Amino acid sequence: MSDFMNDKTDDVTAETEHVTSPQQSDALAQGTSDDPLERVLRRAAGAGASVIRDLSEAQALGSSAHDDLDDGDHGIQMDREDRASLTRVAGLSTELEDVTDVEYRQLRLENVVLIGVYSSARAKSAQESLDEAENSLRELAALAETAGATVLDGVLQRRANPDPATYFGKGKAQELAELVRALGADTVIADDELGPSQRRALEDVVNAKVIDRTTVILDIFSQHAKSREGKAQVELAQLEYLLPRLRGWGESMSRQAGGQVGAAGAGMGSRGPGETKIELDRRRINTRMARLRKQIAGFAPAREAKRANRKRGAVPSVAIAGYTNAGKSSLLNRLTGTQELVQNQLFATLDTAVRHSETQDGRSFTFVDTVGFVRNLPHQLVEAFRSTFEEVGESDVIMHVVDASHPDPEAQIKTVRDVIAEVDAQGIPEVVVFNKADLIDDSRRMLLHGLAPTGVFVSARTGEGLEELRERIDAAIPTPDREVTVVVPYDRGDLVAELHERNRVLELEYDEAGTRVHAFVTPEMFAKLDAFLV
Ligand SMILES: Nc1nc2c(ncn2[C@@H]2O[C@H](COP(=O)(O)OP(=O)(O)OP(=O)(O)O)[C@@H](O)[C@H]2O)c(=O)[nH]1
Ligand SMILES: [Mg+2]
After folding, report:
1. Whether this model's pTM surpasses 0.80
2. In the chain, how many domains are there?
3. pLDDT of residue 472
4. Per-residue pLDDT tens for 316-341?
5. Measured distance CA(483)–CA(462) in Å, rounded
6. 478 CA distance to ligand 2 centroid (A)?
7. Which ligand 1 atom lies nearest to the CA of residue 344?
């Protein structure tokens, strides 16, 4: 058996059918038709075949049918509670008017229903929790659209926690199945990351493909990545996401093969084919991941060299960070006259762009446009894009762009600051910029002012506030304009290193007492060197 697997590691589907009995091969073929692994490894377009089966007459549509649905599983009391907890989020539908656009979309895109679970059990009021969940679902709708899907509807259920078995409770999952059928949706997207068995179980109930927020974000990243490094980073993140999920997926296939509910992992006969495939896939994934890691490591020297170059020239950098779609690239274009890609899409920018600029008094610096952030950014992506985010950590100033017209700017700001903290960039001076000021009224300005009193209101569209923004950035960029001579003791090599980073070293020699340095330094550095002045 192992010889066989070693011989052919190229085509999993074909192999699986070889090692399977004729009765099983059918079920397996069906199982692999929307195999996420195949999608990632092969990038085959349009592989998302759905598995909609005919529902029985008893589950016909209409509100009366809905009313009867839960009776089998729950007590009446719980039923009412459950039903009252289900909220439709209005205004999510993104179906288009434009006929040609519709035709275009129908050819390539999936019709999706979004689902989310929220709880009112924590410190927040029920209304607050609901608002937050609705915003999150709206964002998921934007993500789904960006990925190329048409959003048909969105449904939230109030529950203390997502159901460990099927995410939605059993009764609600049945209702969801009805809705999916009524709308002709082929995919359900959950707003939380789903466990492997949760995903499968929910798929079984709703008879449609089920994916989660992470999958959507990974999908967008893979569509948008342009550079070879970006592409490798995304693929690595996708495989990292898939690897721990192979088990549940294999179990489900075994179950299909055995045709017996609850047989997952129970009998040798039913476990066999799934396990074989898992082993095979795991090996392929690990091989591929090792290759990607090597490839990505290969990019590091070039990136380091570029960075080192920038540093050697002692040119300070301003990192443009912020939530995705906040208008970072638009502002960069406005401030430097460049033509970065601007799109009303999430994650339009995936490759860092560095642009040269000058302060009003003629000092050079660079702007670095970065990947946008989003709530629940999959940690696999944070890992894969660590080098990109680290650009933020190594900058001299962070220009934190906030979409002033966003329904929940506070959450946006928090998300961005969380990522900033993750790359140890908290100490870097931050200029908060409320962009899209053309879209907001005065009461909104007041609210935003309360969130960040020193924030600058600008509009990349109208040009409002850009002068003030330039001044604020100029002022935040540290200038090495203080001349010092210091003797830094040898156990403070860190200070000498820092002196080289953002200051201008004129002379350096090694004395008995320590390193004697003559330099122009920034006010910040000056304060640190106070004890060593000569
Ligand atoms: N009304 C208005 N729209 C703006 C403004 N600035 C940007 N936009 C729009 O907001 C959308 C996103 O702009 P981008 O510059 O691509 O945003 P980004 O932050 O670079 O986004 P990602 O790269 O996707 O993270 C585009 O549709 C812009 O036209 C503004 O000041 N006012
Ligand atoms: Mg951008």
Report:
1. no
2. 2
3. 95
4. 889 998 888 899 989 998 998 776 66
5. 42
6. 26
7. 27
